[in-house]
Specification:
Cytochrome Bc1 Complex, Chain D, domain 2, mainly alpha, globular, two-stranded antiparallel sheet, 467 residues
Length: 467
Amino acid sequence: MRIRTQLAVCLAPLFAVAVGLCPNPAKAQQANKPPTSYLPVIEEKFDDVMAHMKADKTKIMKRQLDLLGTRYDMGDHPAKGVTMSKGKAVQQGVRVKLPSGLTWEDLARMPADKIREASHWPKGFLPLPHPNHPEGGMVFPKQHIDEIKKQEDRDLTRFDLDHDFPEYLQPEFPPPIFLTTRVDLGDVSQGKLVTIENYYELFNGILNPKQIEGLRLLVTPFAQQQFNQTGDRRSVKPSRGVTCFDCHVNGHTNAATHLAGDARPQEFRHRIDTPTLRGVNIQRLFGSQRGLKTVEDFTEFEQRGAYFDGDQVIATKKGVNILERGSQVHFMAEFQELLDFPPAPKLDVFGRLDAGKASEPELRGEKLFFGKGRCADCHPAPYFTDNLMHNLRTERFYKPQTINNMMAVGDGPIKTFPLRGLKDSPPYLHDGRLLTIEDTVEFFNLVLGVQLSNDEKSDLVAYLRCL
């Protein structure tokens, strides 16, 4: 015993030196670990995690908002006389900022390799990082958080993050619901956010019992990576979880954001702007990498994997909800497939403009869409999707770079989303990097190299607002 004590005394100075060289051995060990496909195991106490994340929140949000301010004009610039389906103003104008001394015409004349070498690709056309990319997870807009808290007393506030886009750059809230089975009713939501509290009174007598049960499951909270009962969560109190309709609000979208679960390590994951579920019945590719071929597959995948950042190991710990295919998944999918696009009164049954209802700029824009602009190569009428994937090879235009802890190396294949109801669904592209339809036109003018004039771009925007 005496020998052990003496040995400990002798080794103590050496141990002190080692600790001095590495004040936090656990952190040093973590930093030296190779990349892993699995999510980190949280070993800190919940109160300690929450305290330091709350302390870091202001700095993290400032970093993200500074990035947005560098990339875009983030002002409130509503288009005169142009609204979404329920009356919210559509934002107008090109918001992406150009490199100093350049015009859009200058860029359009440059070959991709020159843009890349000179670093002239506009920053707003680069991939957009999550508000806190190393952390990731679902982030909801404030108006949705407030309404869910009011109706259900369920709090979707994260103590570490807020949504990074202002309300006027998001879709209208709550959005209307149009059903393929009852087009005579128009908006069946009655102007309300559909939740577990009101879904039955709103839809009893409109849906059949199977569809009502599917809707119930779509508005039922289930455990999710950031919102669950465990100590590894990002809500102050243990949470009942989130619902499908917390992101796909009223079967549409509220611009809630997340990270795709497909890529690893963390910095290579892509931000997701929640897509609308309108028109799901005519779509054939689902999931962030579009490897799922039916909405039933997607519904099941969301609960098993996407809710937990693609890590089925940690999903079990947090309370994964395994849906039964025959009596739950199919019911949920059946309701989703009733969600219709909003009315487009200027389009005929073939998805083309009615010359008696459309303006001259809109008619010229349609001609460009199906001609010089090459939009219809991927977005054919009547639903304006070819149900395929296309690789735009955006990496031609910029060098790999780190942006707020995200590695921007290219986008890879992207699903051709339907363009019907386009003006109801800002922001645009899969990660929301394009704030307006005008930004989207400028982006594709460069990527496709179609050399549209300013007047042609204006006409194309006027047409896209009709869809």
